[in-house]
Each structure stands twice: as structure tokens, then as C-alpha cells.
Design goal:
- With 276 residues, the chain is an alpha+beta fold.
- The chain has one domain.
- It is built from 5 helices and 15 strands.
- Helix 1 runs antiparallel to helix 3.
């Protein structure tokens, strides 16, 4: 699943995918039905999306890095090309290449990547299915291109698990593209502390935020272009939780079907500061 990237089982939020239905102002659908229709279209369309991508990722999570990611049917290759605003030295680039080569020939790491991806997809699907009922919804604005909705926690929602509990304490905004029924933006804030094990195992602090932006990167094909997560709290034995992530993805190009991991490793290289 091409999911909205999330963090440490926290927001995992919302694998926002391809939809075909169209929303029109004259339909005058209730807000909840707009969300339900978009959610169903996202999930249904994902099953038909088998595209793979090469893209550039700029990530800030304590260390600023820029990487090239190349997806294949066999796994994704990620090569770091910059750290803290500078290109890798020749020695660092050599070590990074060795790391990439070890990864693409390590069946255990590839299996773990696949397993983690499947689990993320399952989590995202479950959270998407909760969207209509986890919140109360209202349309706050609408124009020819998009509908903007506001959501608040639904006091009648009974979360089935910890992910649902976190989801159910969020308030925020959802933007739906009317032309293709895509979810463009979802952003939210924790409206209260979330305790884990009565606070003994962990606590996520009120006020933590997330925002995810998606855009059409090729006709009919959408990808996440920005992810921002800022959550703080305490974990077991008062260890500080510092989920601080800002990630921007650019330069999307489709990877040809049948691309091997070895070919992906070559595609992830750069020359003279310009990605191949």
C-alpha cells in the first residue's frame, strides 16, 4: 500500500490513494458522506495502482538528510546523498554504496522491509475505515476545485485499539479534490493527552500535530509530497518521546516495470550533483 507515512505506530495515518468518483457542489452531500465516499474510493483505487517511483527525499528528524529512493516490485532502495546541507565526501559515498549493496543482497532485510510495508498498509487501511465514524464532520469551504472539511473527535466513537485511540483525539482539517475525489491534505492536532497503560507505559501530549500533503505527480497518479509530525510525550520509565519529522518528496519519475534491485541501486546514484 502507498500509505501516508507515519511514525512509530502513532499516526500511521492514512494511505491516501487514487479515486475515480467525482464530487460536485450540486450533489450537496452531507459532510460525513463526502468523507465516506472519498475513503472508499481511495481504498478501492489502491488495489489497481502498481506504479513504482524514483524520488528525492529531504528529511529533518534530528539530522538533515537528502536521499534518493527507487521503488521496485522486490523492495525499495534508498541512498543518502547529502547530510546537513552538504554532499557526501568520497569516503562517505563509498560507505553508502557499500550499505546499498549489502541491503539489496540481504534477504532478511528485504523480507523485513516487505513485512513492515504490509503492516503499515494494514494499519493505514484500518485507520481509513475509521475516518467517517471517528469524527464529527462539517464542510467549512468549497470552490470549483476542492472541498475543505473540519473534523472534531466524535464522543460516541469507541476505538478498537491504541491507534484508534490516538486517531479519536484528533481535531483538524481534510481537503478533498473534487475533480478526482483525492484527499489532498489532512492535518490535525491532539486535543488531549493520550495515556498508554494508565500513563505508566506512555503519554502523548496534548497539542501534538501532524500534516500530510498529497499531489498529482502524473495523470491520475498521486503521491505524498510532504509529511510533518510533531508529537511529544513520555514513554516507559519517563523516557522522552521525540517524534519530530519533516519530510519533503520531490522529483518523481516512474520506474519501468520489471526493474531489478541492482538496476534500482544504479538509478539511485547521482552525478555532478544531479540525479540520474
Amino acid at each position: 500500500m502507498k500509505i501516508l507515512k507515519c511514525y512509530s505506530g502513532l499516526l500511521l495515518m492514512m494511505s491516501l490513494l487514487v479515486g475515480r468518483s467525482t464530487l460536485h457542489a450540486q450533489d450537496a452531500k452531507p459532510a460525513k458522506e463526502i468523507v465516506r465516499t472519498a475513503m472508499q474510493a481511495e481504498l478501492a483505487a489502491d488495489k489497481n495502482d502498481h506504479t513504482r517511483w524514483r524520488y528525492r527525499v529531504a528529511k529533518k528528524d534530528g539530522t538533515d538528510t537528502v536521499s534518493i529512493v527507487v521503488e521496485t516490485d522486490h523492495g525499495s532502495v534508498k541512498r543518502t546523498i547529502m547530510k546537513n546541507g552538504r554532499s557526501l565526501t568520497e569516503a562517505e559515498a563509498k560507505l553508502e554504496d557499500e550499505h546499498v549493496q549489502r541491503f539489496i543482497h540481504d534477504s532478511a532485510q528485504l523480507a523485513k522491509q516487505k513485512k513492515d510495508g504490509l503492516q503499515d498498509g494494514k494499519n493505514a487501511e484500518e485507520l481509513l475505515n475509521m475516518l467517517p465514524e471517528a469524527f464529527t464532520w462539517k464542510v467549512v469551504s468549497e470552490d470549483a476545485q476542492r472541498i475543505t472539511l473540519h473534523f472534531d473527535p466524535n464522543p460516541g466513537f469507541s476505538p478498537p485499539d491504541m491507534q484508534g485511540r490516538v486517531l479519536g483525539t484528533m481535531a483538524g482539517t481534510l481537503v478533498v479534490s473534487k475533480g478526482q475525489n483525492r484527499i489532498e491534505t489532512i492535518s490535525g492536532k491532539l486535543t488531549q493527552d493520550v495515556t498508554i497503560g494508565w500513563g505508566l507505559l506512555g503519554r502523548l501530549r496534548e497539542g501534538g500535530t501532524f500534516r500530510v500533503e498529497r499531489r498529482e505527480v502524473a495523470p491520475g497518479l498521486w503521491q505524498i509530497v510532504e509529511t510533518h509530525v510533531h508529537i511529544e510525550g513520555k514513554a516507559l520509565f519517563f523516557k522522552t518521546i521525540g517524534e519530530q519529522q519533516d519530510e519533503v518528496q520531490t522529483e518523481f519519475t516512474q520506474v519501468p516495470p520489471g526493474t531489478t534491485l541492482e538496476q534500482a541501486a544504479e538509478m539511485s546514484k547521482v552525478a555532478n550533483g544531479v540525479t540520474k
